[in-house]
Design brief:
This is Clp1-like protein. The chain is α+β, with helices and mostly antiparallel strands. About 40% of the residues lie in helices and about 10% in strands.
């Protein structure tokens, strides 16, 4: 399992017969002053951003998107050469994607995922501790293969770990599926709901528990009690419990899952945008200048259909984050900034850049 969690002030150095050290009051006071000032500034910034977001959320964005049949995957300069007749479809999108009230994962859920090594540390501490081991754990996940019988959902599944140097094995398999379709009002008596498509994902329960406040405790797994697996020259097969997980957008779950392990906004931006993005945007993704620079490039380069598909991806990740109760700050910064880029790009691409601006806000800059 993941290595034991320790408080940051944990020390292996013996303290017996060690004389106490005198504190430095002036340094402590200065540190507290800086922290307090920083906290106040951050709180004001958060309040200002929340106010702007609430103003944006009050009105939807209405755009007319031109569809050219099979040309949805080509760039804008290729659209004029298509022989198919265009179809204008009105599209209405939310101006902003609101964040639900913040809550943290329960101690019960984290304790079930960590086993005996958990001593009541908060979820934020657990996420920080996992960040260093995330890339290696994700590498192990990507090496897992299994065979699934689609006719029935098993309670446990045998998986093969192809990573011979792995020490932290996945603890569970998630069976991810979409909500079952409701029966239409005028459906015939012979109507049956469509077959549910289920995708299997190996996970470490601790990564999921630390990031997902609404997920609840994972069932016991034989892997949880194992401190680490020794390196081996042969492939190892392990039995993992299967946990069903209904999500609004199963297709976008892999992007969110990878973020849980890596905690890097670039992981999400690669799924959110149809093109490369600059390092400046990653570092200053909430900057209006960087947002409009990328939005203008996307809006003038790609067909609105392509941009609309990426808006759907962002919306899907947002839905899943809300459903799971994921409130990591960088996750929400990535969602907010990417949606702002895409919705501005869509407005520019459809020739209506003013559509994204709400009442009482400054006039948008004139597009060249």
């Amino acid at each position: 399992m993941i290595r034991a969690l320790r408080a940051r002030n944990f020390s292996k150095r013996p303290t017996e017969n060690t004389p106490p050290t005198k504190p430095a009051p002036k340094t402590i006071r200065r540190t507290r002053s800086r922290k307090t000032k920083k906290s106040i500034t951050a709180a004001k910034l958060d309040a200002e951003q929340a106010k702007k977001k609430a103003q944006k959320s009050s009105q939807p964005v209405r755009l007319n998107v031109v569809f050219y049949g099979d040309s949805a995957d080509v760039e804008m300069q290729d659209v004029a050469s298509t022989s198919q007749q265009p179809t204008i479809v009105p599209v209405m999108l939310p101006r902003a994607l609101n964040q639900p009230p913040i809550c943290e994962p329960s101690n019960e859920a984290i304790a079930a995922a960590t086993g005996l090594s958990y001593c009541g540390q908060p979820a934020s501490f657990v996420r920080d501790e996992l960040e260093s081991s995330g890339p290696r754990s994700l590498q192990t996940l990507c090496s897992v293969v299994t065979q699934v019988d689609n006719s029935v959902l098993p309670k446990e599944l045998a998986v093969v770990v192809n990573d011979l140097t792995a020490s932290d094995y996945p603890t569970h398999m998630l069976a991810v599926y979409a909500p079952v379709s409701k029966r239409p009002e005028n459906a015939p008596a012979s109507w049956v709901p469509p077959k549910t498509d289920v995708k299997m994902y190996p996970v470490h329960s601790l990564f999921m528990a630390a990031h997902c406040a609404k997920l609840g405790p994972f069932p016991p797994s034989p892997i949880t009690s194992v401190e680490s697996f020794p390196a081996t020259d042969e492939l190892r097969t392990v039995i993992l419990p299967v946990r069903p997980l209904c999500l609004p957008s199963p297709s976008t779950f892999p992007s969110l899952l990878h973020y849980f392990y890596l905690r890097r906004s670039e992981v999400l931006f690669k799924a959110f945008f149809p093109c490369e993005f600059s390092t400046d945007f990653v570092e200053k993704c909430m900057s209006e200048e960087e947002i409009m620079k990328l939005a203008t490039h996307i809006g003038k380069t790609f067909n609105p259909n392509v941009i609309l598909k990426h808006a759907k991806v962002i919306h899907g990740v947002w839905q899943n984050a809300c459903a799971l109760g994921s409130f990591d700050d960088e996750l929400w910064m990535a969602i907010d900034s990417a949606y702002e880029v895409i919705i501005n790009a869509l407005a520019i691409g459809t020739g209506n850049p003013r559509a994204v601006y709400v009442a009482k806000s400054p006039s948008p800059p004139t597009q060249a």
